[in-house]
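During the second year of the project, the team shifted from modelling isolated chains to modelling whole assemblies. The rationale, set out in the original proposal, was that interfaces cannot be judged from single-chain predictions alone. As a representative example for this report, we include one of the complexes processed in the last quarter. Its constituent sequences, exactly as entered into the pipeline, are reproduced here:
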Amino acid sequence: MKNRIQQDFTDILAKGIFTFLGYLNIVFVVVICFYLIISGIPAIFKVGFTDFIFGTRWASTAQDRAFGILPFILTSVYGTFGALLIGLPLGFFTSVYLAKFANKKVKSFVESTVDLLAGIPSVVFGFIGMLVLVPSIQYVFDLPDGSSLLAAILVLSIMILPSIIKVSIGAIQSVPYEYELGSLALGANRVETVYKVLVPAARRGISIAVVLGVGRAIGEAMAVMMVAGNVANMPGIFESVRFLTTAVASEMSYSSGLQREALFSIALVLFIFIMAINAVLNLVMKKRGKTK
Amino acid sequence: MISNRLERCIYHNVMLFLAFMATVFTVFIVVFIIGYVLIRAIPHVSWELLSTKPSYINETIGLLPDILNTVYIVFATLVFVLPLGVGAAVYLSEYAKNIKVKRTIEYAIESLAGIPSIIYGLVGMLIFCQYMSLKTSLLAGALTLTIMNLPTIIRTTQESLDSVPISYREGAFGLGANKWYTIRTVVLPCCIDGIVTGCILAVGRMLGESAALLFTAGFAHKLNGFIDALSSSGSTMTVALYVYAKEQGRFDVAFVIAAIMLLMSLMINYTAGYLSKRIQRKRLVK
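Output from the structure prediction step:
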């Protein structure tokens, strides 16, 4: 009898603990949001909302200080867009080839190299970019310094490849086989079938890949910090620039006072971007669930 | 008619060629990165570099403290993240009945997965280093990594929990076991493989992490025991790579670290692939 009571007790206890652990995840997200908002809001008000978001000059340590983060926001947007411009076609064509044209051996080999690419730490990307890309950009375009938005875009476009390729392959492969057979029976050749029937049918899955790529590109800090030159210029393709992420990372270690608060505000802006991307992702996924 | 045919032929060949070239290019990038790092690293690898600590007197650099710090932080993070992650996964697939609550928790986990590491670093610094006054220490770094890696562990565990047949649970209930006993003795042992795979993936992420550790775990290269290390600042391999490459210009050391990181991720990929293949085979047998 006593044994029974003990067992019931542990059962209830276990249920309590697991429930707690489940809810804990919500707590983490709420705490992270809370801390970012609490520490990010003051500087925005001190600097003034429009001056902060739309100000084009960032001079946090100069005599006459200015905290305008428009250069960072635009750089992040351009950088992400540029990375997509290169990474998306490359990833898309690769995934089409792997999903439909490649034989089994080639497919598993390339997929394992893509996995490997996904596992390479971001500092290694940054390091190689710093030693290979930056000098070659400097040489090819005859610039005083190769650290530029272009270098960052190239590094980012390689870094987003794995997520784009993996998700797109899944999307293309999950198109029902009947679509393919139908198209082939109507006289289309294999390539036409893939590009004109399967890809349009998989477009939602591919758009998920795009959103994931955007999320990864906009949140990347270390690799970008090593190749983008880290000067708070307005973005230009050969300009040395600073992203939202690198603005936080590069000044955090020696910041104080209003400068430090402004860095938290930058993080808050970045966080809002990420949350918006997550919301879009959720929306796309939900729609996808409905149409199926 | 003929022009149409020609057009289709061109379309066929061009599109096929594009797809093929993209694949070749992707593979080329990976091979280039790995080859470049290994070729530049091999001349600088020495036992001395791997087994000593940096000395300002002799002006030598050693990676042992960084290697040990990495091991410590991975171990400490696993100790925290395993119970938290597996517990949350058990709740989601075994206990949660209210679909709204489940959705909310899953959305929270997705959000955690989407937050960039630099924000984790910042919030980790605010919460663990300042609010909980742990200072910049490996422990603060490990706690930050714990929250970062929760989604990975939860997802893989949940997947393998969901693949355990309902009949197992019904059998256990039928024999009079209560829920916790069933989970402990029947359900969880069935998904050990999945949990291990999750751990390996998470370890891969921890090894590669740098932005989150920069402000939480710091840059020191001191040689410490496990307990001392947890309470003091220490750089992991990736952070050391960043510091040596960007701030000290020691590319030789950076190449060696990069090569070690690549080999580690190669090993991790291989092990994770092997395990998931084994799991699939097991499922087929069932």
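The first strand of chain A starts at residue 58 and ends at 59. DSSP finds 13 helices and two strands in chain A.
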